[in-house]
Amino acid sequence: MQKTDKDSAPLRDGAVDLETGIVGVAASPELRTRTLFQDRFVGVMRAGHPLSQGKVTLARYASARHILVSRRNLEKGPVDDALASHGRARHVATIAGGFSTALALARGHA
């Protein structure tokens, strides 16, 4: 089941026994958390995309059209914060609700 917010009420109320996801720095003190794994950001592009040739510089990366993955339909995310810290912004062409949809869009099959 997709969870669209960070509300932990279903766990506290006993409606669910276990939740997996990204835990913020301010998890509720009555909840126990355990790191299952650490993830990393990766960039994916269609075959033949201009960024697939040569070095991916900050300027080239920022100037490309991006698909933002946001389960909460937010228009900005951690990548945008990192770019802003370098005085850059990216062009988000569309927002996808999950990575499968984003990959299909990048391939041109959605």
Properties at a glance:
110 residues; alpha+beta; two-stranded parallel sheet; 4 helices; elongated
Layout of secondary structure:
Layout: H1 9-13, H2 58-63, E1 65-69, H3 78-84, E2 91-96, H4 99-107
Parallel strand pairs: 1-2
Q: How large a portion of the residues is in β-strands, by DSSP E?
A: 5-15%
Q: What is the percent of helical residues? A: 10-25%
Shape: elongated
Structural class: alpha+beta
Termini gap: 22 Å
The overall pLDDT average reads 86
Q: What are the segments in which pLDDT stays under 50 over at least 5 consecutive residues?
A: none
Describe the main β-sheet briefly.
2 strands, parallel
Global Rg: 17 Å
In short:
By secondary structure, the chain is α+β, with helices and mostly antiparallel strands. It has helices at residues 9-13, 58-63, 78-84, 99-107, and strands at residues 65-69, 91-96.
Commentary on this structure:
The longest helix is centred in the last third of the chain and has 9 residues. With 110 residues, the chain is of the alpha+beta class. The chain has a two-stranded parallel sheet with strand order 1-2. It is elongated. It is built from four helices and two strands, in the order ααβαβα.
